[in-house]
Amino acid sequence: QVQLVESGGGLVQAGGSLRLSCAASGRTFSNRAMAWFRQSAGNEREFVAGIRGSDNIIQYQDSVKGRFTISRDNAKNTVYLKMTSLKPEDTAVYYCASNPTIYAYTDVEMYDSWGQGTQVTVSS
Prior knowledge:
The protein is built from no helices and 11 strands. The protein has strands spanning 4-7, 10-13, 18-24, 33-39, 46-51, 58-60, 68-73, 78-83, 92-99, 113-114, 118-123. Helices cover 0% and strands 48% of the residues. It is mainly β.
């Protein structure tokens, strides 16, 4: 497991942008897949975006394609989520997650490390 700490959430108007960061501890960061999930009130946690370890292949949930960008900086042990053209339906607690394989699975159960979450609120 690794320890994950998110930052960058906040309140933004519809159409605005935010960048989330997730700093990871540990020496195996570059070999681990990283992902962002989100959970809104009354809903299950859902996959937003993931980036594989080693080859940085990326996957997005359909609703965020073209608006969100996931990236990683292995030298800084950090993964980012740049969110643009935000919509009220993007309002949720966003979680950073990591799993010990290179594959960015979309299933919550495949991840062994989670951050504490950061609130993103988009007003209309």
